[in-house]
Amino acid sequence: MTDTTGASEELRVGPVKSGDRYAVIAEDGTRIILAVREISPGSWRVAEGESIFVLAARRHAGVIEMDTPEGRLVFRPAAPLDFAGGDAAADRSVASPLTGMIVEVKVADGQTVAEGDVLAVMESMKLEISIRATAAGIASNISVSNGDMVDRGRVIAEILPSEE
């Protein structure tokens, strides 16, 4: 992200879908959860806790420009390998296998996990299904909470490489 003064900061953004919540993680590890809804073409309602903002956003040539009360922000996508820490992003993403409800999130952001560890349990068609880590590493960008409804294929977490 680059602001009008030219200051730049890398942000990692979890799954984004109109009307959904998503996590934004800054370089310093600060994490916020945002709820986003498009209220008219180019106009978005963004809520964080009790704060609500209406922002104008435009997308062109792979860049998102957003007018905020503090000024204009420009978002440019990171290269996939940079974001994934050198591994293919798809290999480290954990997605919901079915549409259903998350009944229990079993890990926290920053927790070390082994390949196959249960990250969350979901209920779908009266069955409980364990959602497991696709690789060993550090659970990150967990975008679901107990009681959340998720669609099949929605990325619910990422597994970052361990520093070891």
What are the salient characteristics of this protein?
5% helix; globular; single chain; 16 strands; eight-stranded antiparallel beta sheet; mainly beta; OB fold (Dihydrolipoamide Acetyltransferase, E2P); 164 residues
Overall, the morphology is globular
The parts where pLDDT drops under 50 for at least 5 residues are 79-90
Average pLDDT confidence is 76
Question: Structural class, judged by helices and strands?
Answer: mainly beta
Number of domains: 2
Query: Cα-atom Rg, whole angstroms?
Result: 17 Å
Strand order of the largest sheet: 1-8-7-6-5-4-3-2
- What is the overall number of helices? 2
Structural description of this entry:
This protein is mainly beta and 164 residues long. The model is unreliable at 79-90 (pLDDT under 50). It contains 2 helices and 16 strands. The chain has helices at residues 80-83, 89-92, and strands at residues 2-3, 11-13, 21-26, 31-40, 43-48, 51-60, 63-68, 71-75, 93-95, 100-105, 112-113, 118-124, 127-132, 137-140, 149-150, 155-160. The chain is 5% helix and 51% strand. The chain has 2 domains: 2-77; 85-160, OB fold (Dihydrolipoamide Acetyltransferase, E2P), CATH 2.40.50.100. The radius of gyration is 17 Å and the shape is globular. Keywords: Biotin. It comes from Sulfitobacter porphyrae. Residues 89-160 form the Lipoyl-binding domain.
